[in-house]
């Protein structure tokens, strides 16, 4: 079976997790090609399309401080375990302090839980353990992590822009933040930008291909994504991403 995006070059040493962690440790961020992530995570065409279909069943975010109805999502979290497993935590609200998220922070926000088929999907497990290996290596040692998952769909309509980051340039109040492209359908815009804490631009990229990934140290950078609009009016237009947040825990 072919990977999601077949690499155009032979994969060489060091492996993705080593290259990505080195960039993360030295530059505080890394942009990873979708084909490289797919290969590292062991993701193939048929399983990827099945996994991406879960974004068609996301539900409306009813907690938007700007009154927008353009964001669909679900939410769940896991802890890594000493035996190498992932423990899904009981479902509960998502909270951010208002100093981190001035638009939607300061209140508990209740979202529908992740579907169990999504949680158990081998693609998700491959993605998460690839990311765990990257952030562990960036730390220099295995680390107990809390992992929060945010699958998003941002809708764009004629006369109404879709806002991937309605709070603007921000941090998430975690240790590492990951944004992975799932699908772009009939949209323009959606450029990801990363800055240092003084808001000086470090890099920008438009995630386009499946599994194209931005990963950053959330303590030393800020990030934002520009608005999206329909490429062709009157046709469905949306941007699907998986956001994964890593927070170090005191102990396993």
What this model shows, in words?
This protein is α+β, with helices and mostly antiparallel strands and 252 residues long. Helices cover 20% and strands 31% of the residues. It is built from five helices and 14 strands. It has helices spanning 16-27, 34-41, 45-52, 116-119, 122-139, and strands at residues 29-32, 59-60, 71-73, 76-80, 86-88, 145-155, 176-185, 187-189, 191-196, 201-206, 213-217, 221-225, 228-230, 238-248. Strands 1, 2, 3, 4, 5, 6, 7, 11 and 14 form a nine-stranded antiparallel beta sheet that branches. It has a three-stranded antiparallel beta sheet with strand order 10-9-12, with no helix packed on it. It has a two-stranded antiparallel ribbon with strand order 8-13. The longest helix has 18 residues, at 122-139. The termini are far apart. 39% of the residues are buried. The model is unreliable at 1-12 (pLDDT under 50).
């Amino acid at each position: 079976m072919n990977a999601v995006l077949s690499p155009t070059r032979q994969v060489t040493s060091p492996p993705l997790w080593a290259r990505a962690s080195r960039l993360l440790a030295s530059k505080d961020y890394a942009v990873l090609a979708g084909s490289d992530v797919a290969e590292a995570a062991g993701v193939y065409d048929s399983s990827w399309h099945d996994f991406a279909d879960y974004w068609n069943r996301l539900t409306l975010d009813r907690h938007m401080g700007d009154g927008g109805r353009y964001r669909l999502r679900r939410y769940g979290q896991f802890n890594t375990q000493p035996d190498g497993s992932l423990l899904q935590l009981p479902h509960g609200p998502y909270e951010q302090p208002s100093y981190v998220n001035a638009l939607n922070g300061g209140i508990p926000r209740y979202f529908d839980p992740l579907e169990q088929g999504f949680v158990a999907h081998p693609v998700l497990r491959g993605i998460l353990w690839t990311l765990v290996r990257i952030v562990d290596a960036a730390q220099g040692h295995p680390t107990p992590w809390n992992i929060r998952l945010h699958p998003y769909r941002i809708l764009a309509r004629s006369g109404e822009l879709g806002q991937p980051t309605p709070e603007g340039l921000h941090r998430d109040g975690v240790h590492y933040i990951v944004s992975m492209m799932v699908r772009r359908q009939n949209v323009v815009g959606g450029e990801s930008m990363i800055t240092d804490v003084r808001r000086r631009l470090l890099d920008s990229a438009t995630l386009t291909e499946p599994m194209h990934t931005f990963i950053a140290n959330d303590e030393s950078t800020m990030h934002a994504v520009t608005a999206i609009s329909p490429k062709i009016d009157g046709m469905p237009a949306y941007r699907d991403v998986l956001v994964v947040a890593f927070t170090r825990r005191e102990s396993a």
